[in-house]
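protien #1 (seq + structre)
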Amino acid sequence: MSGRGLLRTDAELFLHLCRLAAGLESPALGETEVFSQFRQGVSAFNDETSGNGDLARSLGAAVGIGRGVRRNLGSEVASMASAAATTARSSKRVAILGAGAMARATARLLPADSVSVFSRRPDSVAGRDTEPWDQTVQALEEVQVLISTVPGRVQLFPEREISAALAKRTEPLLLIDLGMPPGFDRHRTDPAIVHMGVDEIASSVQSRPRPDLEELVAKEAASAWARLNASDRVGMVIAAIVDGAEHAVDEEVRRFAGRLPDAADPQAIMHQLAHTVVRRVLHRPISYAGSSETDSDALRVLAEAFGVTDE
Protein backbone atom coordinates (compact mmCIF):
# COMPACT_ATOMS: atom_id res chain seq x y z
CA MET A 1 0.00 0.00 0.00
CA SER A 2 1.42 3.37 -0.98
CA GLY A 3 0.56 6.89 0.03
CA ARG A 4 1.16 8.53 3.35
CA GLY A 5 -1.71 8.24 5.83
CA LEU A 6 -3.45 5.27 4.17
CA LEU A 7 -2.20 2.89 6.84
CA ARG A 8 -2.24 4.01 10.47
CA THR A 9 -1.12 2.11 13.53
CA ASP A 10 -0.75 2.63 17.28
CA ALA A 11 -0.80 6.28 18.41
CA GLU A 12 -1.41 7.60 14.89
CA LEU A 13 -4.45 5.35 14.50
CA PHE A 14 -5.77 6.34 17.93
CA LEU A 15 -5.39 10.03 17.10
CA HIS A 16 -7.34 9.49 13.87
CA LEU A 17 -10.16 7.81 15.83
CA CYS A 18 -10.23 10.77 18.22
CA ARG A 19 -10.36 13.21 15.30
CA LEU A 20 -13.25 11.27 13.76
CA ALA A 21 -15.18 11.28 17.04
CA ALA A 22 -14.47 14.99 17.53
CA GLY A 23 -15.72 15.87 14.05
CA LEU A 24 -12.38 17.28 12.91
CA GLU A 25 -12.38 15.01 9.85
CA SER A 26 -15.98 15.92 8.91
CA PRO A 27 -17.01 18.29 6.13
CA ALA A 28 -18.52 20.54 8.84
CA LEU A 29 -16.57 21.07 12.06
CA GLY A 30 -17.90 19.02 14.96
CA GLU A 31 -20.69 17.46 12.87
CA THR A 32 -23.21 15.97 15.29
CA GLU A 33 -24.42 13.13 13.06
CA VAL A 34 -20.89 11.77 12.66
CA PHE A 35 -20.52 11.67 16.44
CA SER A 36 -23.86 9.88 16.75
CA GLN A 37 -22.83 7.31 14.13
CA PHE A 38 -19.44 6.84 15.78
CA ARG A 39 -21.09 6.21 19.15
CA GLN A 40 -23.56 3.77 17.65
CA GLY A 41 -20.67 1.83 16.15
CA VAL A 42 -18.85 1.80 19.50
CA SER A 43 -22.02 0.70 21.29
CA ALA A 44 -22.56 -2.17 18.83
CA PHE A 45 -18.93 -3.24 19.27
CA ASN A 46 -19.26 -3.14 23.06
CA ASP A 47 -22.41 -5.27 22.89
CA GLU A 48 -20.43 -7.90 21.01
CA THR A 49 -17.38 -7.78 23.29
CA SER A 50 -19.02 -6.77 26.61
CA GLY A 51 -16.87 -3.64 26.46
CA ASN A 52 -13.70 -5.58 27.25
CA GLY A 53 -10.30 -5.40 25.62
CA ASP A 54 -7.84 -2.75 24.53
CA LEU A 55 -9.85 -1.73 21.46
CA ALA A 56 -13.01 -1.20 23.50
CA ARG A 57 -11.11 1.01 25.94
CA SER A 58 -9.53 2.95 23.08
CA LEU A 59 -12.90 3.54 21.44
CA GLY A 60 -14.36 4.64 24.76
CA ALA A 61 -11.54 7.13 25.20
CA ALA A 62 -12.13 8.51 21.69
CA VAL A 63 -15.82 8.99 22.46
CA GLY A 64 -14.92 10.89 25.63
CA ILE A 65 -12.59 13.20 23.69
CA GLY A 66 -15.25 13.75 21.04
CA ARG A 67 -17.78 14.70 23.70
CA GLY A 68 -15.32 17.15 25.24
CA VAL A 69 -14.73 18.88 21.91
CA ARG A 70 -18.46 19.37 21.44
CA ARG A 71 -18.75 20.89 24.89
CA ASN A 72 -15.97 23.27 23.87
CA LEU A 73 -17.74 24.15 20.62
CA GLY A 74 -21.09 24.77 22.32
CA SER A 75 -23.46 26.48 19.90
CA GLU A 76 -20.85 26.23 17.12
CA VAL A 77 -21.39 22.47 16.77
CA ALA A 78 -22.30 21.90 13.13
CA SER A 79 -25.07 19.68 11.85
CA MET A 80 -25.37 18.54 8.27
CA ALA A 81 -28.93 17.44 9.06
CA SER A 82 -29.79 20.93 10.26
CA ALA A 83 -28.30 22.50 7.13
CA ALA A 84 -30.23 20.09 4.88
CA ALA A 85 -33.47 20.71 6.79
CA THR A 86 -33.00 24.48 6.59
CA THR A 87 -32.54 24.23 2.83
CA ALA A 88 -35.70 22.11 2.44
CA ARG A 89 -37.93 23.71 5.10
CA SER A 90 -39.86 26.01 2.77
CA SER A 91 -40.88 23.11 0.51
CA LYS A 92 -44.27 21.45 0.94
CA ARG A 93 -43.25 17.98 -0.28
CA VAL A 94 -39.96 16.49 0.88
CA ALA A 95 -38.74 12.89 0.60
CA ILE A 96 -35.96 11.48 2.76
CA LEU A 97 -34.14 8.28 1.79
CA GLY A 98 -32.81 6.16 4.65
CA ALA A 99 -33.56 5.48 8.30
CA GLY A 100 -30.16 6.03 9.92
CA ALA A 101 -28.90 8.78 12.21
CA MET A 102 -28.70 11.42 9.45
CA ALA A 103 -32.21 10.67 8.17
CA ARG A 104 -33.69 10.73 11.68
CA ALA A 105 -31.98 13.98 12.60
CA THR A 106 -33.17 15.64 9.38
CA ALA A 107 -36.75 14.38 9.71
CA ARG A 108 -37.05 15.70 13.27
CA LEU A 109 -36.29 19.21 12.00
CA LEU A 110 -38.94 19.29 9.27
CA PRO A 111 -42.75 19.70 9.55
CA ALA A 112 -44.38 16.29 9.88
CA ASP A 113 -46.98 16.97 7.20
CA SER A 114 -44.39 17.77 4.53
CA VAL A 115 -42.09 14.74 4.84
CA SER A 116 -42.16 11.16 3.60
CA VAL A 117 -39.35 8.83 4.66
CA PHE A 118 -38.44 5.84 2.48
CA SER A 119 -36.44 2.90 3.84
CA ARG A 120 -35.50 -0.56 2.72
CA ARG A 121 -37.18 -2.13 5.76
CA PRO A 122 -40.34 -0.96 7.59
CA ASP A 123 -39.34 1.42 10.35
CA SER A 124 -40.42 4.47 12.31
CA VAL A 125 -38.41 7.67 11.87
CA ALA A 126 -39.12 10.73 14.03
CA GLY A 127 -42.64 9.46 14.69
CA ARG A 128 -43.35 8.69 11.04
CA ASP A 129 -43.88 5.23 9.55
CA THR A 130 -41.55 4.80 6.60
CA GLU A 131 -42.73 4.31 3.05
CA PRO A 132 -41.76 1.24 0.97
CA TRP A 133 -38.42 1.59 -0.79
CA ASP A 134 -39.83 0.60 -4.18
CA GLN A 135 -42.11 3.65 -4.13
CA THR A 136 -39.18 6.06 -4.09
CA VAL A 137 -38.95 6.32 -7.88
CA GLN A 138 -42.58 7.45 -8.08
CA ALA A 139 -41.82 10.09 -5.45
CA LEU A 140 -39.08 11.43 -7.74
CA GLU A 141 -41.83 12.59 -10.08
CA GLU A 142 -43.75 14.52 -7.41
CA VAL A 143 -41.67 15.82 -4.49
CA GLN A 144 -39.98 19.20 -4.50
CA VAL A 145 -36.94 18.08 -2.49
CA LEU A 146 -35.24 14.71 -2.13
CA ILE A 147 -32.74 14.29 0.72
CA SER A 148 -30.73 11.10 0.29
CA THR A 149 -28.76 9.84 3.28
CA VAL A 150 -28.03 6.44 1.73
CA PRO A 151 -24.49 5.50 0.60
CA GLY A 152 -24.22 4.91 -3.13
CA ARG A 153 -21.70 2.07 -3.13
CA VAL A 154 -24.07 0.29 -5.49
CA GLN A 155 -26.67 1.88 -7.75
CA LEU A 156 -29.74 2.65 -5.63
CA PHE A 157 -32.33 2.33 -8.40
CA PRO A 158 -32.29 1.26 -12.06
CA GLU A 159 -30.96 4.06 -14.26
CA ARG A 160 -33.82 3.92 -16.72
CA GLU A 161 -36.44 4.21 -13.96
CA ILE A 162 -34.83 7.32 -12.49
CA SER A 163 -34.50 8.94 -15.91
CA ALA A 164 -38.13 8.16 -16.75
CA ALA A 165 -39.36 9.63 -13.46
CA LEU A 166 -37.31 12.80 -13.86
CA ALA A 167 -38.53 13.23 -17.43
CA LYS A 168 -42.10 13.56 -16.12
CA ARG A 169 -41.29 16.48 -13.83
CA THR A 170 -42.57 19.96 -14.62
CA GLU A 171 -40.01 21.69 -12.39
CA PRO A 172 -36.47 20.80 -11.28
CA LEU A 173 -35.98 18.53 -8.28
CA LEU A 174 -33.73 19.83 -5.51
CA LEU A 175 -31.65 16.76 -4.68
CA ILE A 176 -29.57 16.97 -1.49
CA ASP A 177 -27.20 14.01 -1.65
CA LEU A 178 -25.67 13.32 1.78
CA GLY A 179 -24.71 9.71 1.13
CA MET A 180 -21.07 8.76 1.56
CA PRO A 181 -20.28 8.00 -1.21
CA PRO A 182 -23.08 9.95 -2.95
CA GLY A 183 -25.98 7.88 -4.22
CA PHE A 184 -27.02 10.15 -7.09
CA ASP A 185 -23.71 11.58 -8.23
CA ARG A 186 -24.15 10.22 -11.74
CA HIS A 187 -27.29 12.38 -12.11
CA ARG A 188 -25.54 15.58 -11.04
CA THR A 189 -25.74 17.12 -14.53
CA ASP A 190 -29.34 16.08 -15.27
CA PRO A 191 -31.30 19.24 -16.20
CA ALA A 192 -34.26 18.00 -14.11
CA ILE A 193 -32.11 18.14 -10.96
CA VAL A 194 -30.56 20.89 -8.87
CA HIS A 195 -27.90 18.82 -7.13
CA MET A 196 -26.37 19.69 -3.74
CA GLY A 197 -23.72 17.36 -2.38
CA VAL A 198 -22.02 17.12 0.98
CA ASP A 199 -19.54 19.88 0.16
CA GLU A 200 -22.25 22.34 -0.88
CA ILE A 201 -24.31 21.65 2.26
CA ALA A 202 -21.21 21.77 4.46
CA SER A 203 -20.27 25.20 3.10
CA SER A 204 -23.46 26.65 4.61
CA VAL A 205 -22.48 25.52 8.12
CA GLN A 206 -18.71 25.49 7.84
CA SER A 207 -17.22 27.08 10.94
CA ARG A 208 -14.04 29.10 11.00
CA PRO A 209 -10.81 27.11 11.48
CA ARG A 210 -10.17 26.13 15.08
CA PRO A 211 -6.46 25.40 15.55
CA ASP A 212 -7.10 25.39 19.31
CA LEU A 213 -9.32 22.32 18.88
CA GLU A 214 -6.73 20.63 16.70
CA GLU A 215 -4.21 21.17 19.49
CA LEU A 216 -6.69 20.09 22.18
CA VAL A 217 -7.52 16.80 20.46
CA ALA A 218 -3.85 16.05 19.77
CA LYS A 219 -2.99 16.71 23.42
CA GLU A 220 -5.93 14.73 24.83
CA ALA A 221 -5.26 11.83 22.44
CA ALA A 222 -1.58 11.68 23.43
CA SER A 223 -2.50 11.71 27.13
CA ALA A 224 -5.18 9.05 26.71
CA TRP A 225 -2.85 6.88 24.62
CA ALA A 226 -0.21 7.06 27.36
CA ARG A 227 -2.78 5.99 29.96
CA LEU A 228 -3.96 3.13 27.78
CA ASN A 229 -0.42 1.88 27.24
CA ALA A 230 0.28 2.11 30.96
CA SER A 231 -2.81 -0.01 31.64
CA ASP A 232 -4.25 2.77 33.77
CA ARG A 233 -7.91 1.89 33.43
CA VAL A 234 -9.30 4.08 36.20
CA GLY A 235 -9.83 7.14 34.02
CA MET A 236 -11.23 5.05 31.20
CA VAL A 237 -13.73 3.33 33.50
CA ILE A 238 -14.88 6.61 34.99
CA ALA A 239 -15.20 8.18 31.54
CA ALA A 240 -17.21 5.20 30.30
CA ILE A 241 -19.54 5.34 33.31
CA VAL A 242 -20.10 9.07 32.90
CA ASP A 243 -20.56 8.74 29.15
CA GLY A 244 -23.09 5.92 29.59
CA ALA A 245 -25.06 7.93 32.14
CA GLU A 246 -25.06 11.06 29.95
CA HIS A 247 -26.11 9.00 26.94
CA ALA A 248 -29.05 7.58 28.94
CA VAL A 249 -30.07 11.08 30.03
CA ASP A 250 -29.84 12.44 26.46
CA GLU A 251 -31.96 9.63 25.00
CA GLU A 252 -34.63 9.62 27.69
CA VAL A 253 -34.99 13.41 27.75
CA ARG A 254 -35.59 13.35 23.98
CA ARG A 255 -38.10 10.53 24.43
CA PHE A 256 -40.05 12.19 27.24
CA ALA A 257 -39.85 15.81 26.01
CA GLY A 258 -42.78 15.44 23.65
CA ARG A 259 -45.05 14.32 26.48
CA LEU A 260 -44.54 17.39 28.69
CA PRO A 261 -46.49 20.09 26.79
CA ASP A 262 -49.77 18.13 26.97
CA ALA A 263 -49.20 16.46 30.32
CA ALA A 264 -51.82 16.99 33.03
CA ASP A 265 -49.16 16.31 35.65
CA PRO A 266 -45.69 17.37 34.38
CA GLN A 267 -44.14 16.46 37.72
CA ALA A 268 -45.26 12.85 37.30
CA ILE A 269 -43.67 12.76 33.84
CA MET A 270 -40.39 14.14 35.23
CA HIS A 271 -40.53 11.60 38.06
CA GLN A 272 -41.00 8.78 35.56
CA LEU A 273 -38.12 10.17 33.45
CA ALA A 274 -35.79 10.24 36.45
CA HIS A 275 -36.70 6.66 37.44
CA THR A 276 -36.17 5.46 33.85
CA VAL A 277 -32.71 7.01 33.70
CA VAL A 278 -31.78 5.53 37.08
CA ARG A 279 -32.90 2.06 36.00
CA ARG A 280 -30.89 2.31 32.78
CA VAL A 281 -27.75 3.50 34.56
CA LEU A 282 -27.97 0.80 37.24
CA HIS A 283 -29.06 -2.05 34.97
CA ARG A 284 -25.57 -3.46 34.34
CA PRO A 285 -24.31 -3.18 37.95
CA ILE A 286 -27.50 -4.84 39.23
CA SER A 287 -27.29 -7.60 36.61
CA TYR A 288 -23.65 -8.14 37.50
CA ALA A 289 -24.39 -8.27 41.23
CA GLY A 290 -27.17 -10.79 40.66
CA SER A 291 -25.06 -13.09 38.49
CA SER A 292 -24.20 -16.48 39.96
CA GLU A 293 -20.64 -15.98 38.72
CA THR A 294 -20.07 -12.84 40.84
CA ASP A 295 -17.73 -13.67 43.73
CA SER A 296 -17.80 -12.19 47.22
CA ASP A 297 -14.87 -9.85 46.58
CA ALA A 298 -16.65 -8.31 43.62
CA LEU A 299 -19.81 -7.86 45.68
CA ARG A 300 -17.79 -6.19 48.42
CA VAL A 301 -16.34 -3.74 45.92
CA LEU A 302 -19.83 -2.97 44.58
CA ALA A 303 -21.12 -2.47 48.11
CA GLU A 304 -18.31 -0.04 48.92
CA ALA A 305 -18.85 1.83 45.63
CA PHE A 306 -22.53 2.37 46.41
CA GLY A 307 -22.07 3.00 50.13
CA VAL A 308 -23.87 -0.16 51.23
CA THR A 309 -23.08 -1.33 54.75
CA ASP A 310 -24.06 -4.37 56.80
CA GLU A 311 -25.58 -2.21 59.51
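ok now protien #2
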Amino acid sequence: MAWLSDSALNHLREVIEWPDFAGTRYELLEEIARGGMGTVYLARDKQLYRKVALKVLNVFEGSEGATRMAHEARILARLEHPGIVPVHDVGALPDGRVYYAMKRVEGRRLDEYARSKPELPDLLRLFCRITEPVAFAHSHGIIHRDLKPANIMVGTFGEVLVLDWGVAKILDFHGNDIGKPGGQKPDAEPPDAAPGAAVGTESHVDGTAHGMVIGTHDYMAPEQAAGEVGAVDARSDVYALGKVLSFLLEQVLGPGGIPKPLRAIAEKAASRKPAERYATALTMAADVARYLDGTPVTAYRETVLERTARLVSRHRTAVALVLAYLFMRLLIFLLVRR
Protein backbone atom coordinates (compact mmCIF):
# COMPACT_ATOMS: atom_id res chain seq x y z
CA MET A 1 0.00 0.00 0.00
CA ALA A 2 1.38 3.41 -1.01
CA TRP A 3 0.93 6.28 1.43
CA LEU A 4 0.26 9.77 0.14
CA SER A 5 2.22 12.69 1.52
CA ASP A 6 0.49 15.65 3.17
CA SER A 7 1.22 17.83 0.16
CA ALA A 8 -0.32 15.25 -2.17
CA LEU A 9 -3.41 14.99 0.03
CA ASN A 10 -3.75 18.77 0.10
CA HIS A 11 -3.46 18.90 -3.67
CA LEU A 12 -6.16 16.24 -4.05
CA ARG A 13 -8.43 18.17 -1.72
CA GLU A 14 -7.90 21.35 -3.73
CA VAL A 15 -8.68 19.50 -6.97
CA ILE A 16 -11.86 18.01 -5.48
CA GLU A 17 -13.07 21.25 -3.90
CA TRP A 18 -11.99 23.72 -6.60
CA PRO A 19 -15.35 24.90 -7.92
CA ASP A 20 -16.24 24.72 -11.60
CA PHE A 21 -17.50 28.12 -12.74
CA ALA A 22 -17.49 27.22 -16.44
CA GLY A 23 -20.50 28.79 -18.13
CA THR A 24 -20.80 31.57 -15.55
CA ARG A 25 -19.65 35.18 -15.66
CA TYR A 26 -16.87 34.49 -13.14
CA GLU A 27 -13.27 33.41 -13.59
CA LEU A 28 -11.62 32.11 -10.42
CA LEU A 29 -8.20 33.58 -9.64
CA GLU A 30 -7.17 32.32 -6.19
CA GLU A 31 -8.37 31.17 -2.79
CA ILE A 32 -8.59 33.95 -0.21
CA ALA A 33 -9.87 32.28 2.95
CA ARG A 34 -11.35 29.00 4.14
CA GLY A 35 -13.93 28.52 6.88
CA GLY A 36 -15.98 25.71 8.33
CA MET A 37 -18.90 26.22 5.96
CA GLY A 38 -17.51 27.91 2.87
CA THR A 39 -14.40 28.99 1.02
CA VAL A 40 -13.87 32.51 -0.32
CA TYR A 41 -12.17 32.96 -3.68
CA LEU A 42 -10.95 36.00 -5.55
CA ALA A 43 -12.59 36.05 -8.98
CA ARG A 44 -12.99 38.29 -12.01
CA ASP A 45 -16.43 39.31 -13.20
CA LYS A 46 -16.10 38.92 -16.98
CA GLN A 47 -19.15 41.07 -17.70
CA LEU A 48 -18.37 44.07 -15.49
CA TYR A 49 -14.56 43.71 -15.62
CA ARG A 50 -14.06 43.92 -11.87
CA LYS A 51 -12.70 41.66 -9.17
CA VAL A 52 -15.16 40.21 -6.68
CA ALA A 53 -15.10 37.75 -3.80
CA LEU A 54 -16.99 34.48 -4.28
CA LYS A 55 -18.06 32.50 -1.24
CA VAL A 56 -18.66 28.86 -2.20
CA LEU A 57 -20.15 26.12 -0.06
CA ASN A 58 -17.61 23.49 0.91
CA VAL A 59 -17.98 20.13 -0.80
CA PHE A 60 -19.17 18.08 2.17
CA GLU A 61 -21.57 20.56 3.77
CA GLY A 62 -24.70 19.13 2.11
CA SER A 63 -28.24 20.54 2.04
CA GLU A 64 -28.10 22.11 5.51
CA GLY A 65 -24.96 24.01 4.55
CA ALA A 66 -26.67 25.17 1.36
CA THR A 67 -29.60 26.44 3.41
CA ARG A 68 -27.27 28.38 5.67
CA MET A 69 -25.29 29.83 2.77
CA ALA A 70 -28.49 31.02 1.08
CA HIS A 71 -29.62 32.42 4.45
CA GLU A 72 -26.40 34.44 4.78
CA ALA A 73 -26.76 35.80 1.24
CA ARG A 74 -30.33 36.93 1.97
CA ILE A 75 -29.21 38.57 5.22
CA LEU A 76 -26.47 40.52 3.43
CA ALA A 77 -28.80 41.52 0.60
CA ARG A 78 -31.27 42.86 3.15
CA LEU A 79 -28.68 44.96 5.00
CA GLU A 80 -27.55 47.82 2.77
CA HIS A 81 -25.01 49.66 4.91
CA PRO A 82 -21.43 50.88 4.24
CA GLY A 83 -20.23 48.69 7.11
CA ILE A 84 -21.73 45.48 5.65
CA VAL A 85 -20.35 43.83 2.52
CA PRO A 86 -22.91 44.04 -0.31
CA VAL A 87 -23.98 40.94 -2.24
CA HIS A 88 -23.92 41.21 -6.06
CA ASP A 89 -25.17 37.79 -7.14
CA VAL A 90 -26.20 34.34 -5.88
CA GLY A 91 -26.41 31.00 -7.64
CA ALA A 92 -25.63 27.28 -7.64
CA LEU A 93 -22.85 25.30 -9.31
CA PRO A 94 -23.50 22.18 -11.42
CA ASP A 95 -22.51 20.01 -8.42
CA GLY A 96 -25.23 21.68 -6.32
CA ARG A 97 -23.01 23.89 -4.20
CA VAL A 98 -24.43 27.32 -3.44
CA TYR A 99 -22.29 30.41 -4.01
CA TYR A 100 -22.69 34.14 -3.83
CA ALA A 101 -20.64 37.02 -5.16
CA MET A 102 -19.85 40.00 -2.97
CA LYS A 103 -17.66 43.08 -2.89
CA ARG A 104 -13.96 42.31 -2.66
CA VAL A 105 -12.73 43.52 0.74
CA GLU A 106 -9.13 44.63 1.19
CA GLY A 107 -7.63 45.32 4.58
CA ARG A 108 -6.81 43.62 7.90
CA ARG A 109 -8.83 41.71 10.43
CA LEU A 110 -9.54 43.64 13.60
CA ASP A 111 -7.24 41.44 15.70
CA GLU A 112 -4.38 42.10 13.27
CA TYR A 113 -5.14 45.83 13.36
CA ALA A 114 -5.04 45.83 17.18
CA ARG A 115 -1.65 44.13 17.20
CA SER A 116 -0.27 47.11 15.23
CA LYS A 117 -0.75 49.17 18.47
CA PRO A 118 -2.81 52.13 17.17
CA GLU A 119 -3.24 55.22 19.33
CA LEU A 120 -6.04 54.85 21.89
CA PRO A 121 -8.26 57.65 20.46
CA ASP A 122 -8.00 56.12 16.98
CA LEU A 123 -8.85 52.70 18.37
CA LEU A 124 -11.91 54.00 20.23
CA ARG A 125 -13.19 55.93 17.21
CA LEU A 126 -12.80 52.77 15.16
CA PHE A 127 -14.76 50.80 17.76
CA CYS A 128 -17.60 53.32 17.60
CA ARG A 129 -17.75 52.76 13.84
CA ILE A 130 -18.02 49.00 14.44
CA THR A 131 -21.21 49.54 16.43
CA GLU A 132 -22.93 51.35 13.55
CA PRO A 133 -23.53 48.40 11.16
CA VAL A 134 -24.43 46.23 14.16
CA ALA A 135 -27.02 48.77 15.31
CA PHE A 136 -28.30 49.07 11.72
CA ALA A 137 -28.81 45.30 11.58
CA HIS A 138 -30.62 45.38 14.92
CA SER A 139 -32.97 48.05 13.58
CA HIS A 140 -33.88 45.55 10.84
CA GLY A 141 -34.50 42.75 13.33
CA ILE A 142 -31.24 40.89 12.67
CA ILE A 143 -28.87 39.70 15.40
CA HIS A 144 -25.36 38.77 14.28
CA ARG A 145 -24.63 36.20 17.07
CA ASP A 146 -20.95 35.76 16.19
CA LEU A 147 -19.30 39.16 16.65
CA LYS A 148 -15.56 38.80 17.28
CA PRO A 149 -12.34 40.43 16.03
CA ALA A 150 -11.88 37.76 13.35
CA ASN A 151 -15.26 38.69 11.82
CA ILE A 152 -14.50 42.42 11.58
CA MET A 153 -12.36 43.90 8.82
CA VAL A 154 -10.53 47.23 8.85
CA GLY A 155 -10.18 48.50 5.29
CA THR A 156 -7.20 50.18 3.67
CA PHE A 157 -8.69 53.64 4.25
CA GLY A 158 -9.96 52.98 7.77
CA GLU A 159 -13.42 51.75 6.80
CA VAL A 160 -14.97 49.07 8.99
CA LEU A 161 -16.82 46.01 7.70
CA VAL A 162 -18.69 43.45 9.82
CA LEU A 163 -18.45 40.03 8.14
CA ASP A 164 -19.83 36.50 8.46
CA TRP A 165 -23.59 36.77 8.96
CA GLY A 166 -24.11 33.04 8.39
CA VAL A 167 -25.49 32.37 11.89
CA ALA A 168 -27.53 35.57 12.17
CA LYS A 169 -30.93 35.37 13.85
CA ILE A 170 -33.93 37.10 12.31
CA LEU A 171 -36.22 38.51 14.97
CA ASP A 172 -38.65 40.16 12.57
CA PHE A 173 -38.99 37.54 9.87
CA HIS A 174 -42.17 38.98 8.31
CA GLY A 175 -40.74 42.45 7.76
CA ASN A 176 -42.81 44.22 10.42
CA ASP A 177 -41.09 47.04 12.29
CA ILE A 178 -39.75 45.84 15.62
CA GLY A 179 -41.46 47.42 18.57
CA LYS A 180 -44.59 48.38 16.65
CA PRO A 181 -47.95 46.77 17.30
CA GLY A 182 -48.35 43.57 15.34
CA GLY A 183 -44.62 42.99 15.03
CA GLN A 184 -43.90 39.26 15.05
CA LYS A 185 -40.62 37.75 16.17
CA PRO A 186 -40.42 34.05 15.30
CA ASP A 187 -37.15 32.20 15.69
CA ALA A 188 -36.74 31.45 11.99
CA GLU A 189 -33.08 30.64 11.54
CA PRO A 190 -30.61 28.47 9.65
CA PRO A 191 -30.05 24.90 10.77
CA ASP A 192 -26.48 24.18 11.75
CA ALA A 193 -24.04 25.72 14.17
CA ALA A 194 -21.05 27.86 13.34
CA PRO A 195 -17.61 26.28 13.07
CA GLY A 196 -16.24 25.54 16.52
CA ALA A 197 -19.58 25.97 18.29
CA ALA A 198 -21.06 23.39 20.62
CA VAL A 199 -24.28 21.90 19.29
CA GLY A 200 -27.08 20.94 21.63
CA THR A 201 -30.04 18.65 21.42
CA GLU A 202 -31.65 19.00 18.01
CA SER A 203 -32.08 21.25 14.99
CA HIS A 204 -34.59 21.85 12.24
CA VAL A 205 -34.16 22.76 8.61
CA ASP A 206 -36.06 26.01 9.10
CA GLY A 207 -34.80 27.09 12.49
CA THR A 208 -32.49 26.78 15.45
CA ALA A 209 -33.93 24.63 18.19
CA HIS A 210 -33.95 25.51 21.84
CA GLY A 211 -30.79 24.05 23.35
CA MET A 212 -28.61 24.63 20.28
CA VAL A 213 -25.55 26.79 20.89
CA ILE A 214 -24.37 29.03 18.06
CA GLY A 215 -21.43 31.39 18.17
CA THR A 216 -17.85 31.58 19.46
CA HIS A 217 -17.39 30.67 23.13
CA ASP A 218 -15.23 33.59 24.28
CA TYR A 219 -17.68 36.14 22.86
CA MET A 220 -21.04 34.49 23.55
CA ALA A 221 -23.52 35.96 26.00
CA PRO A 222 -24.59 33.56 28.80
CA GLU A 223 -28.10 33.14 27.36
CA GLN A 224 -26.57 32.30 23.99
CA ALA A 225 -24.10 29.83 25.49
CA ALA A 226 -26.99 28.17 27.36
CA GLY A 227 -28.87 27.59 24.09
CA GLU A 228 -31.77 29.84 25.13
CA VAL A 229 -32.68 30.80 21.57
CA GLY A 230 -35.72 32.86 22.54
CA ALA A 231 -33.65 35.00 24.94
CA VAL A 232 -31.10 36.03 22.31
CA ASP A 233 -31.66 39.62 21.19
CA ALA A 234 -29.72 42.82 20.48
CA ARG A 235 -28.25 42.79 23.99
CA SER A 236 -26.55 39.49 23.15
CA ASP A 237 -24.60 41.29 20.43
CA VAL A 238 -23.89 44.11 22.91
CA TYR A 239 -22.29 41.49 25.17
CA ALA A 240 -20.02 40.41 22.30
CA LEU A 241 -19.14 44.07 21.62
CA GLY A 242 -18.09 44.40 25.26
CA LYS A 243 -15.78 41.43 24.85
CA VAL A 244 -14.41 42.88 21.61
CA LEU A 245 -13.69 46.19 23.35
CA SER A 246 -11.90 44.37 26.19
CA PHE A 247 -9.80 42.47 23.67
CA LEU A 248 -8.81 45.66 21.84
CA LEU A 249 -7.90 47.53 25.03
CA GLU A 250 -5.82 44.65 26.34
CA GLN A 251 -3.98 44.35 23.03
CA VAL A 252 -3.13 48.06 22.93
CA LEU A 253 -2.78 48.99 26.62
CA GLY A 254 -2.22 45.68 28.38
CA PRO A 255 -4.57 44.29 31.08
CA GLY A 256 -3.19 46.63 33.75
CA GLY A 257 -3.16 49.80 31.67
CA ILE A 258 -6.85 50.15 30.83
CA PRO A 259 -8.44 53.34 32.24
CA LYS A 260 -11.18 52.59 34.77
CA PRO A 261 -13.99 54.28 32.78
CA LEU A 262 -13.19 52.22 29.68
CA ARG A 263 -12.96 49.02 31.70
CA ALA A 264 -16.34 49.86 33.24
CA ILE A 265 -17.87 50.36 29.78
CA ALA A 266 -16.62 46.97 28.59
CA GLU A 267 -17.79 45.26 31.79
CA LYS A 268 -21.24 46.86 31.66
CA ALA A 269 -21.68 45.75 28.03
CA ALA A 270 -20.59 42.22 28.95
CA SER A 271 -22.70 41.90 32.10
CA ARG A 272 -24.02 38.39 32.67
CA LYS A 273 -27.57 39.73 33.06
CA PRO A 274 -29.03 41.25 29.87
CA ALA A 275 -30.92 43.90 31.85
CA GLU A 276 -27.63 45.26 33.21
CA ARG A 277 -26.07 45.72 29.76
CA TYR A 278 -26.41 48.71 27.47
CA ALA A 279 -29.81 48.54 25.81
CA THR A 280 -28.36 49.12 22.34
CA ALA A 281 -25.02 49.11 20.54
CA LEU A 282 -25.33 52.87 19.94
CA THR A 283 -25.86 53.53 23.65
CA MET A 284 -22.58 51.76 24.31
CA ALA A 285 -20.88 53.75 21.54
CA ALA A 286 -22.20 56.97 23.09
CA ASP A 287 -20.45 56.13 26.37
CA VAL A 288 -17.18 55.49 24.50
CA ALA A 289 -17.65 58.85 22.74
CA ARG A 290 -18.13 60.53 26.13
CA TYR A 291 -14.77 59.17 27.24
CA LEU A 292 -13.17 60.50 24.06
CA ASP A 293 -14.73 63.92 24.71
CA GLY A 294 -13.46 63.97 28.29
CA THR A 295 -16.94 63.90 29.85
CA PRO A 296 -18.26 61.45 32.47
CA VAL A 297 -19.35 58.02 31.24
CA THR A 298 -22.57 56.48 32.53
CA ALA A 299 -20.90 53.16 33.35
CA TYR A 300 -18.43 54.56 35.91
CA ARG A 301 -18.85 56.65 39.05
CA GLU A 302 -15.87 58.95 39.49
CA THR A 303 -14.27 59.94 42.78
CA VAL A 304 -13.77 63.66 43.49
CA LEU A 305 -10.07 63.31 42.72
CA GLU A 306 -10.75 61.53 39.42
CA ARG A 307 -13.31 64.16 38.44
CA THR A 308 -10.82 66.94 39.17
CA ALA A 309 -8.08 65.20 37.19
CA ARG A 310 -10.45 64.67 34.26
CA LEU A 311 -11.55 68.32 34.25
CA VAL A 312 -7.95 69.51 34.42
CA SER A 313 -7.02 67.19 31.54
CA ARG A 314 -10.00 68.28 29.46
CA HIS A 315 -9.41 72.00 30.03
CA ARG A 316 -5.63 71.88 30.34
CA THR A 317 -5.11 74.90 28.06
CA ALA A 318 -7.39 77.09 30.16
CA VAL A 319 -5.88 75.72 33.38
CA ALA A 320 -2.37 76.43 32.08
CA LEU A 321 -3.34 80.02 31.21
CA VAL A 322 -4.88 80.60 34.65
CA LEU A 323 -1.83 79.17 36.38
CA ALA A 324 0.48 81.29 34.23
CA TYR A 325 -1.59 84.37 35.07
CA LEU A 326 -1.49 83.60 38.80
CA PHE A 327 2.25 82.98 38.64
CA MET A 328 2.84 86.33 36.93
CA ARG A 329 0.68 88.14 39.50
CA LEU A 330 2.62 86.48 42.30
CA LEU A 331 5.93 87.40 40.65
CA ILE A 332 4.85 91.05 40.22
CA PHE A 333 3.65 91.16 43.82
CA LEU A 334 6.99 89.90 45.10
CA LEU A 335 8.96 92.36 42.92
CA VAL A 336 6.84 95.31 44.08
CA ARG A 337 7.40 94.41 47.76
CA ARG A 338 11.13 94.60 47.22
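DSSP finds ten helices and ten strands in the chain.
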